[in-house]
Design goal:
Distance between the termini: 17 Å
Bound molecules: adenosine-5'-triphosphate, magnesium ion
Strand content: 25-35%
Number of helices: 14
Largest sheet: 9 strands, mixed
Oligomer: single chain
Shape: globular
Length: about 450
């Protein structure tokens, strides 16, 4: 992509309305534009990162055996009357009427709809286990939308629902989700710690929230410092193996880690004092097992192998896809701007031409662009007629992991300069060597 042809409305000034660094940087880097409180347009750069996050979520869900689908944003109130949540949900639910005066709502979540679908089509235990998910926009009329996409009113969420014959089988689905979430967040360069959470109005005993530690997080958390040393890494896991998934759950949840809602001073006091930590965190996901409550209300029953009609055991599992952009930036930035982890970066590499219009420099940049593309990478070539300082500042702000700087002086010696955004270190090398390093 040539920057001269792209749409990257970078802001020079720091927007006054933004209170936290990720919101400021997303506005300054031209990633989002507010439409009204908590509702944003995703400008090209922000949209690219959002799509990358979405892709990782899809890949890891599919790897775990979960099946993608898509349900609508608008729902009829009927379904929610069945579950009793139409009245219970309160003012966070955006309600509307269609031209026939029928009650509708913009979905804040999809338990009712998915249970209705499964209840309609699944009649036998032989169709189980089943986990369906979608990545769809949600609307919650938050009292205080703030911090940009972190607490929006319209936001993108992955929500998945497992349907199983027994509690035991549903708990395997719970564990499987925990494992797949650990992989998902790590691929985005994030450490998200599973913490025992409060199940709230949805009910049930089994729930963990995934928290990214950050000073600007809205949750207060308490944990054993040892937990931050755990990494899932690239270990192979068989998602069908009950034992393997349970082992990972035990490994990642046996140390003390709780949000303030479930915090227990007495239990916390048993953690060695030098490892006790209290901090703030951003909730980037949550998993739940809640039993048969929805299936009973919505009529999702199957015949078991003894011919009895039994309600399905369910859980629901969410990832805050759009919130993750904010969380990643909170966790990875410096005073110059964003530092994208490789997994989600909007472009792999920036190319800065120090002397636009110089035949040799232009040709070298174009050759680099082609060579990077041939490696399957997406470069962003700053081909504007601007001062080098401005070009560097833009590249630092938008946070691409690598920058290749090309100028007539270096080209005389056959070299370009490769700079790592994260370390700030620069090295001179041939253009070919730079491509190899970036790839
Ligand atoms: P919160 O405690 O932050 O209000 P929640 O517990 O109400 O979140 P869930 O119902 O668990 O949210 O939804 C799953 C995920 O969706 C959350 O873990 C979070 O990452 C994301 N999410 C929830 N509300 C918002 C929002 N208003 N804006 C952006 N993301 C959100
Ligand atoms: Mg909420
Ligand atoms: Mg919450
Ligand atoms: Mg939650």
């Amino acid at each position: 992509m040539r920057l001269s042809r792209y749409f990257l409305p970078v802001l020079k000034e720091t927007p006054a309305e933004a209170q936290i660094v990720s919101h400021r940087l997303m506005l300054r880097a031209g990633m989002i534009k507010q439409v009204s409180a908590g509702i944003y347009s995703w400008l090209p750069l922000g949209y690219k990162v959002l799509k990358n996050i979405e892709r990782i979520v899809h890949e890891e869900q599919i790897r775990a055996g979960h099946i993608p689908m898509l349900m609508p944003t608008l729902q009829s109130a009927d379904l929610w009357q069945k579950s009793g949540r139409f009245d219970a949900y309160g003012p966070e639910m955006l309600r509307l009427k269609d031209r026939h005066d029928r009650d509708m709502l913009y979905g804040p979540t999809n338990e009712e709809m998915i249970t209705d679908i499964v209840g309609t089509y699944v009649t036998s235990y032989k169709s189980l286990p089943l986990t369906l998910y979608h990545i769809q926009w949600k609307f919650r009329d938050e009292v205080r939308p703030r911090f940009g996409v972190m607490r929006g009113r319209e936001f993108l969420m992955k929500d998945g629902y497992n349907f199983d014959l027994s509690k035991e089988a549903a708990l395997h689905a719970y564990n499987r989700h925990l494992v797949s979430y650990l992989r998902t967040y790590e691929r985005m360069g994030l450490q998200a710690i599973p913490m025992r959470a409060d199940s709230g109005p949805i009910g049930g005993d089994y729930t963990h929230e995934f928290l990214v530690l950050a000073e600007t997080g809205e949750s207060e958390v308490f944990y054993d410092a040892e937990i931050t040393e755990l990494k899932f890494g690239d270990r192979e896991i068989d998602y069908d193996s009950v034992e393997q998934c349970a082992e990972v759950l035990t490994e990642f949840t046996s140390r003390y880690a709780r949000t303030d809602e479930t915090h227990d001073e007495a239990a916390f006091a048993e953690v060695p004092e030098d490892r006790q930590r209290s901090a703030r965190g951003i909730e980037v996901g949550q998993i739940f097992y809640f039993g048969t409550e929805y299936s009973e209300k919505m009529g999702a029953y199957v015949q078991n192998d003894e011919g009895e009609r039994v309600p399905l055991h369910m859980g629901s599992h969410g990832i805050g896809v759009s919130r993750l952009l904010g969380a990643i930036i909170e966790a990875s930035h410096d005073d110059k701007g964003i530092i994208w982890p490789e997994g989600v970066t909007p472009f792999h590499c920036g190319i800065v031409n120090l002397k636009q219009g110089d035949a040799e420099a232009d040709a070298a940049c174009e050759a680099l662009e082609k060579a990077l593309e041939a490696e399957g990478l997406e470069p962003l070539y700053d081909d504007r007629n601007e001062r080098a300082g401005g070009k560097f500042a833009t590249m630092d702000l938008i946070g691409l992991p690598w920058r290749i700087t090309v100028g007539p002086r270096g080209l005389k010696n056959g070299v370009v300069e490769l700079t790592s955004r994260r370390t700030g270190e620069s090295e001179e090398m041939t253009p070919e060597a730079a491509v190899v390093r970036v790839a």
